[in-house]
Every structure is written in C-alpha cells, then in structure tokens.
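Repro case for the chain-ordering regression, as requested:
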Amino acid sequence: MAIKGLEIRDISATRYAALGISKVPRMTKLIDLSTCIGCKACEVACMEWNDLPMDETYRAAGGYQTIPDLAHNFWNLIKFNEVDNGNGLLWTMAKHQCMHCENPGCLRACPAPGAIVQYTNGIVDFVQENCIGCQFCVTGCPFNVPRISPKNQKVYKCTLCSDRVAAGLEPACIKACPTGCLQFGTKEQLLEYGRHRVRELRSRGFKDAAIYDPPGVMGTHVIYVVPYGNHPEVYGLPADPRIPALVSLWKGPLKTIGSTIMLGGVTAALLHYLTYGPMEVKPDTDVKKQR
Amino acid sequence: MTNGWTDIGNADVVLAMGGNPAENHPCGFKWVIEAKKKRGAKLVCIDPRFNRTAAVADHFVQIRAGTDIAFLGGLINYILSNGLYHEEYVRLFTNATFLVKSDFSFGNGLFSGYNPASGTYDKSTWQYQQDGSGHALQDPSLRDTDCVFQHLKKHFSRYTSAVVSEITGASVEDFERAAGIICSTGRPEKAGTIMYALGWTHHSFAVQIIRAAAILQLLLGNIGRPGGGVNALRGHSNIQGGTDHGVAFDKLPGYLKSPTADQQDLKHYLMENTPKPLSPTSMNYWSNYPAFFISLMKTMYGNHATLENDFAYHYLPKADRNYSWVYLFDDMYQGKLEGMLTFGMNPVANGPNSNKMISALSKLKWLVVADCFETETAQFWRAPGIDPGEVDTEVFLLPAGIFAEKDGSFTNSARWAQWKWKALDPPGDAKADQEMLARIFLKVRELYQEGAGAFPEPILHLSWPYSRPQDPPLEEIAKEINGHAVADVIDGKGEVVAKVGEQLSTFAHLKDDGSTSCGNWLYCGSFTEKGNMMARRGRSDPSGLGMYHEWAWNWPLNRRILYNRASCDADGRPWDPTRVSIMWDGTRWVGDTPDYKADSPPGAGLGAFIMLPEGVGKIFAADFVEGPLPEHYEPVESPIKNPLHPEVSSNPLVKRFVSDKDGYANPEDFPIVCTTYRLTEHFHFWTKHITVNSLLQPEFFVEIPYELAKQKGIKDQDLVRVTSARGSVEGKALVTKRIKPMRVGGREVWQIGIPIHWGFAGRVKGPLANLLTPTAVDPNSFTPEYKGFLVRLEKV
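-- result from build under test --
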C-alpha cells in the first residue's frame, strides 16, 4: 500500500492510468536566490540524510565551490559564480538538484518499466532496482541532473526526500537551511510566496526579478526566485529548458510506429508457434552452460 | 551584544563591519534576512573582501584591513557636518554636554598627557571639570568649547570623505553612499544595528574601533532601542559564557577586576573598583561592587570567608604585571614556565606567530592537553621542521568529551544562557572537563594536605560542596553561580526577601556583609527557587519583537535589550511606538525588564545608563589606555605611514616583543597587506578532523586579487608562497575579482587573504595561517593583531 502522496501517478515504460483525480497536493521546494548565502548546509544535510559517502574532494577552479558537479553520490550542489557585470560584482550562489518536472523528460525517455516514477505529490523518483543503466534519462533531462554510478551502473539523483515527505517532514535540505532561502510547501502556496518575494525584490531595484518555473516542462516542483530573472543562466539555470526533441519523438510518433512494428513481431511469433509448436531445449545443454 | 540575535530582525539598517555574519554566523544571519523581508531593511557590508555577506548586501565597500576607525570616523564626521544626529537623544542620554578639563588636547596623533619615556598616558587631563561634590560640569547648549560635543566635532572634522578614501582605499562615492544609508537612522522612527566580530577585535587598536561604533550609535540614537545596538557576534557556542565567568587573567566572574599587586588589602581593592557618581542623576549601579565581590568570595571560600579575614581577600593572587596569553607565551619561550594545562584551546594553531608558540611549548617540562582531538598543540613536538628527539617536554593528552557528551549551559552572543542536556556518554576513557578539573584539584589538595605547599589555605579552604566531589554535577555548579542566602536576606524596608539557604532571585539582594553567596552576580536569577530558568523553552512573545522572555534566561535579569531606558523620550514615550522595548505606564516601566529603576518616573530624570558613573552613554571615555576618543592608527605593520600623523603612525601604546622569533616587517620588503579569516564550512581548527566539513573545504588556499595575480603571472590553482617577517606558508592560489586593487596614501596597495582552518593535525592538512601573524596586541584587551599585517607573495 502506498503512503499518502506516494501513490503512483506516472511510471516509466508502462501503460498505466492513475485511478480517479488525485486530491494530493503537489509538494514543491522554493529556492530564493536573493537570500542564499552559500553556506552549503543543504549539501551537508543531503549527504547525511541520504547517507551518501563521498570520495576525497579538491577545490574546483576559481572559488569556494569544492565539488565540481553533481554526482551519483552527490545530489545537491551549490554552484558559485563570480560575474563582473560592469557596474559591480555579482557573486551568485545557486543550489542545483533534480527539478522534479511536472512533465519529466527522464521518465519520458526511460525504457525500463518502473525505473522512474512520478508520485501524486509531484516527486519524480528513480527506482534503482528496475534501472537498466541505459542512461536514456540523462539524455531526456533538460537540466542535466541524473548521474550514473560507476559501481553498479544505476542512475541516481535527488529524491526530494520522498521518504521524509511521506512521513510529513520537509526534505533534509529545507530543514538545514539557516536563512529561509529554502521553503517547502504546496505549489500554490509557494507560487504565492514567490510572487510576494518578486514584488519585494522589484521594489528594491531588481526590476527583472522573476519566478523560475519553466513552462517547457510544464513547470517544476523545484522553483526559484531569481533576482536577475532575465538572466537565469547567470545562476546556471537554462533559460528555456525543454525535453530534447529526440525524446519527444521517441515517445510520440516513433512510439506508435515502434509499437506497430513490435505488435507485428509478436503476431508473427504467435503464428509461428501455432504453426510449428515450441522449440525443444535439451536439459544437459543448460547444465553445460552453467559450468 | 547590547541587543540580541532575534532583535536584528527589527532593524531598518544593518551594518555588517568587522564581521562576516553570513559566513561565520549563518544561523544568526537569518535575522538579517528577516529584517530585509519584514522591514525592507538595507544591509551594508564593509570588509577587506567581497565575502558571502557582501553577496547578499545592498551596498558593499572594500576597505584596507585595519582602517575601520578611519571609516567610522568618516561616518561620525558625516553625521555631525550634515546634522544627522538624534539631537534630543544626544542631549538626554550621552555625555556630549559634559565639560572636559581645559588643558585636554590632541595633536600630531597624541592626546595630552603622553609620556614618551614610559610609552603611557597620564590621564589627568582627560577628566571632567567637576563641582564641589565631584559631579561633572555640563553645558546643555553644547556650545562650550570644553564640552564633549565640541571636542568630538573638532576631533573628527579631520575625517573628511577624501581622507577616508586616502586611508581606507574606498572611493569617495562608495563611502558617501554607505554613509547615506547608515546615517539615515538618526531619526526617531528609524533604528540601525551594527554587527561586528573578530574583524574589529583582531587589531592593535581594536577597542577603539568598537568605541567608534558606540559613538556612532549614540549619535544616531540607536543604543537601547529595538533594532539598534552594537552587537558583538561571538565565535564559539559558549565564549560569551567564558567571558562572563572571567577567563581572562585580569577579570573575575561578572567582570569584577582581578586584584593587582598594589591592592594588598580589601579596603583598598574595593575603594579603587567602586566608582563614585559623576552626576547627581546617576544611579551608578557599580556602587554595589562590594556586594558582588564579597558574595563571590563567599562562594569560593564559604565559611572560611569572614568579616574578620577580609572575606579571604588575601587568598587571591595579586597580578603584578600583564599575564595575558601572548605575554605568558613570551615567558614560556624565555624558559620561565614549567608546565601548562590547556583545556578546549589549541594555542599552536590559534596563537599568533605559531613558530614562537611551538618553540615556547618545547621549553616546558610538561604539557597537559585536554581535547577531543589530537590537536596541533598536543602534537607540537612533531610539527613540520621539528625534530621530536630535540623536544624534552612530556605531553599528556587527556581525551575530553564534547559538548553533546555533557549537560550545562551555553551563553550565546545575545547573553542568553540556554541549558542543554547530555545526549550520550563520552566514548572510551574520555571525560567531561569538569571531572578532569575536579580530579586534578582534589589531587593537588591532597598534596597540600600532606604539607607540600608553601601557602596551603587558598587550596585547603576552597569551598567544594558538591555531591560528587570527583565529578561535580553541573546543575549544582549552576546553582552555586546563581547564589543563595547564607543568612536571611533583609531588604531596605526590613522585609525578608530570601530565607537562609534559598536560591536568590536577583542581584539586587546581594549583600557586602557575607550574608549572600553568588558565583557570578550577572547570573543571579538564572537558577532560582523556581528552578533552572535556563532550561525554559516557552515560546510566547507578547512584544511581537522576538523577545521571547520565557525562552531560556539571559543576563542581566532576563533583560533582552541593554540600556532600554534610552528607547523612550524624556517623558517615557517610545521613540518609535511600533517598536516598544519599555515604556512608562504612569506608575512603572513596563515591557522588557527595564534597565532602570522600575518605579522611577521619567520626570525624576534618572540617567538612562545605570552602570556608568555619568548616568549617560560615553562619547568621551577616559577608561582606555590610548585615548578618550578613537583615533586612526595604522596596524603595527602597514604599507604606508599614517596620513593623519606620519610621526605617530601606529598605536603608541602597543608593545613590540623583542625575542628572536618576533620580527616586524617594513613595507619595502613586505609590500602586500594580508588578512586572515574564517569560512562557513569550518569551525576554527576543529572541523578539519571531520569528514563532511573536510569535503566541503578540503584545502588551504590564498585569495589573490585578479589584477595582482596577472601582474605576478599567477594562475588559479598555482602553488604560491606567502612570507611574513615570522614565517611562510605555501598553498594554492584562489584568484578572484572579489578583492580589488586599492589606492592608499597616494599609491597602489594590494591585499590578499588567508583562511585559518588548516594545520598539521586532522583529516585534511595544510599550513597554519598563524605562522605569518605578528605578536602585537591591543593594549586594552590584549587580543593579537591577526588582521592587517604585511607579507610578500611569490609563485613557487
């Protein structure tokens, strides 16, 4: 039995329809980039809660960011960026992790049944035991988030602490954030809060402040308040993320063509079986193979 | 802090200077964000580097390390020349009206009374003109040329925007934009706060920087008010508690003074430390000094402290000179010490001039280190470049429990003492500090009982009333600190306010006749008959200002904002009715615990600063050794001569040490200004022993301005060497645009920065930043000048 909010809404490579219209609120994380102080408490909380052991690190070139990129065992990264925009220095610190898209490119791309699920509360989760390591999800993600483990060839990313959320707790990163830069709630609540923050920022002179909730993936369950909303790329956020055309094609027209071809194959096999009967396999051959 | 963490959220302007709260106090920084969100507050960050506080500030100004007084002096001048001060507040609550002796003067970097031979001041000319009863003469019109206000104006008129720019390296435009924001809070309906930390205390003129901040806030009417104050951000979870309980050589618990060699009897000691009122309206609360001190002696010596033996005053050591720690290490380096116990302290890493620290320790016969890690101090004998075979010191490492492995209290920067509970037992043989100290004490006492000591009474008579003598329960110690009635305590009206044996509820009940015992008068009220007030966790906040009076307990008397009488006008009405700390309700002061006589009506005109003999805040203060008004002096090592007075360039009261380990640089050989600092990811020299922190900042680095790196052909990640007159360190370059070149004293000056967190012990290793720093200390506080010294930089 599923825990509240963790009922399956969508699932990879499986014909599936959620029963009824879900009343479960869509849970969302808001990251207010005007109040992030780059303290990395969220990175620590993520590592500690999810028990992600890291190897030795070194300081990445050019700043305080010591871990250069997301990794299979590092799901929450603050990217530091120094920008000299002519009339002053901007030192941006922006938290990056899975965006938990409303229309998840990873799930669309995944060919392994049940390897990627989207819960009714909006969380997109990877189920490693069903993962076949093909990395189509990596191709499908417009935010470049999933990372494959060199140890077991499975793909990993932020779970939005689906385990904590199901138990009524906020994700670990939210809990650790000292300034209130990270907020957790329903999408409606946080969009309202975000709009309020944007108005405040505009009144303080950030005339292009905006909410980052990209429509190209039908919105995300990780949204940002961005002081320079016209330049999200300054913070390492893609300006207009979309699911790659190949994935759309693969799951759209190509899927129909593919299904037709596959159905033809299965029909042919069935006819073959009815006509010629089963193929017999001698038992000792199997034993030899095992040796 | 005069105010508190939660109160930062009530500010309209936050000045973060001499501190980097976003990086070093990230949890407290939430209140800055709160002020921005709720009040639209402006955050101004002044620092040698564009740091993580600057990243979220509304305005950032880069200054040369060690030029804070010049910047603050510029702000004071900006306020005075533009009439931005809160005039009514200044008249009511400061000593601006007081007349200084006519022969007081200042010129060429020196105040009157300087004796070049001794290098000290005779302070007689810094005193007030007094009437027959010893009260200071005043001029309410502020026009008398001898009045403090006129001296202030004259003194700071030299700190024009152009001079500020010449000294600090900030542009005139940047300075004036910052001044415009900071000085906007002189209006009654506005309040501004200052947050500072080691960036102000780590200088050879540190106390005077903080004095300048106090003057600024008094002029703007920001002391005593919600959203105002001068707020020191303390760097350890309980360093405030440590300071309150007298960890410095010259202090006893509760900021009482250690006796000095010329105070051989109690009468003399009390006379010199009990101030006389300088104004007829002064409450002069320190007149209770004898009650505080004698109650402390009763706690220390119990029945052995009697009227007949001067309450055991002669048991206390009388300091004949400076025993602060750089002086102690200088003695140690000269072979004058036999052994040392060090608890929760890592002097090899956190002392200035680490090479001298290491050499000094190697001259000891024995060293005891109690710590939860094998620190640099515990293994100084195998520091890089040291041959263990050459070191004869016997080192004992006592494994210590950490904070979660004992109960007790933490006093935070806001003076809130919060009780905590033990989470788990210390592992293995590790013990809590109090158990180790108790066992050492009991053993020493045993040796004295056997007749080994020359002066046994101070040890044998020490009160040790704990239920577990070998491991005193901290609750019992907390009760002892709070104090109890030794006999029935009777107040002025003849009523018994505390029966014999009862816990006291307020320091107002302390007596100088031996009928009360109190380990620290400031903490009286923390553990009363009602129980442990520090363990309270009530969340009600009727003030709406985040005071939370039922959450833990803070000294003094659970008063959240100090000097809160100054939050109201002469009639007892709050300057800002939307932010009420206290107010007069017709019969008494209500709201926060009043820092005032609770039933003294506004019309009586009692001074708002009850602890000061003046009864008002001191703009002019003769209390400090190098002058009654702050003056910009260059750091001991500076790239330029002081533009204000080149002949008296640095603080004339600063002593230079003369050992062969103590070099001081000249700017020709060491042209670059260097400053040390801390990073969010680490806690001092501790967390390099811990996995996750080490992952987040694994390596020592040197922050180098982009333009300087280009000039020297240094690329990011290149190995560089930084050398001072004491030592040198090597590490990877972090080339950044966050430190800019500056024009100072008419020429180009460079600044580089070094985080302190590494050493030769720990999970990740790196050079000790303090290999570079000089043995030069503030002459009031004796804190070393870790920031703003000279180095040379080269690519390896």
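Ordering looks correct now. Residues 646-795 of chain B form a domain with the Barwin-like endoglucanases fold (CATH 2.40.40.20).
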